[in-house]
Write a structure and sequence with these properties.
Elements: H1 4-13, E1 20-21, E2 24-26, E3 40-41, E4 43-47, E5 50-55, E6 58-63, E7 69-72, E8 80-86, E9 89-94, E10 97-102, H2 122-130, H3 137-140, H4 152-162, H5 175-197, H6 201-204, E11 220-224, E12 229-233
Antiparallel strand pairs: 1-3, 2-8, 4-5, 5-6, 6-10, 7-9, 8-9, 11-12
Helix pairs in contact: 1-5, 2-5, 4-5
Length: 248
């Protein structure tokens, strides 16, 4: 599943289509595709894991789910979920969830929750996390209403950088450690972006899909929290704050 930095790359690659008219819309998406014909894509935006194509009075949301993908100009072999044809090129989406929503996109999205946004608000994210005192921090870092764009890679790497065990209970984590964690989420996300562009992401990961920690200890791999997403962590380097939940 693409995380926020990968969506930022898509946004950078598609800026050429902003302000351009859709000459033809194609695909098998279950929306009124004909409505996009001859409409101007006034803006392209990302929020977390959502790619947003904004028109006058409505917008189209593309969510890549687990295996979604896209291509620019060159059509792939997979069935096209949505194809947009401009005079500056073509944009194709595959195996994605495509929905159309009425209204202005700014009325529905909190840009301060997006870790890649210039409007990112760390203090607001911390406040939202503290509203779930009994939750495990691993679940909070996957909550898109709190840290939009954070996925399993960012979750694991940020927790390692902050030296916090993924099963730590929110109310037991000191405030200064929460601030450090959210800073690490943000900083790692932009490192992720930089490394992804260079095709160097995998070699820079410290814990995700790793077998051994830099300390020499064996990496623990476990499904954690209510989300049951896989966590990679070092029992020696990452401190557990609070008792483990019964479902851990």
């Amino acid at each position: 599943m693409p995380e926020g930095p990968s969506l930022r790359i898509l946004w950078e690659q598609t800026r050429q289509f902003e302000g351009k008219k859709v000459l033809e819309a194609t695909g098998n998406a279950k929306i009124d595709i004909d409505r996009l014909n001859n409409k101007t894509a006034e803006a392209l935006k990302t929020w977390g894991k959502h790619f947003l194509i904004c028109f006058n009075g409505f917008y189209v949301r593309v969510h890549f789910l687990m295996i979604g993908s896209y291509s620019i100009d060159e059509k792939g072999k997979a069935k096209v979920r949505l194809g947009l044809h401009f005079n500056t090129g073509d944009l194709y989406f595959y195996a994605s969830q495509v929905k159309l929503f009425e209204g202005n996109v700014n009325a529905y999205y909190d840009w301060s929750a997006d870790i890649m946004s210039d409007d990112w608000d760390r203090s607001a994210a911390i406040k939202k996390i503290k509203n779930h005192p009994d939750a495990m921090i691993c679940d909070m870092l996957l909550d898109q209403n709190i840290v939009a764009g954070s996925g399993n890679i960012i979750k694991n790497e940020a927790l390692y950088l902050a030296k916090i065990h993924p099963e730590s209970i929110v109310s037991e984590i000191p405030s200064d450690k929460l601030r450090q964690l959210l800073n690490d989420v943000r900083d790692f996300s932009f490192d992720f972006l930089k490394w992804k562009k260079r095709n160097e992401l995998q070699k820079n990961l410290k814990v995700y899909s790793q077998k051994e920690c830099d300390c020499g200890g064996k990496m623990t791999v476990k499904e954690t929290g209510k989300t049951r997403r896989k966590s990679y962590f070092c029992e020696k380097c990452q401190k557990l704050y609070g008792k483990k939940h019964l479902f851990s």
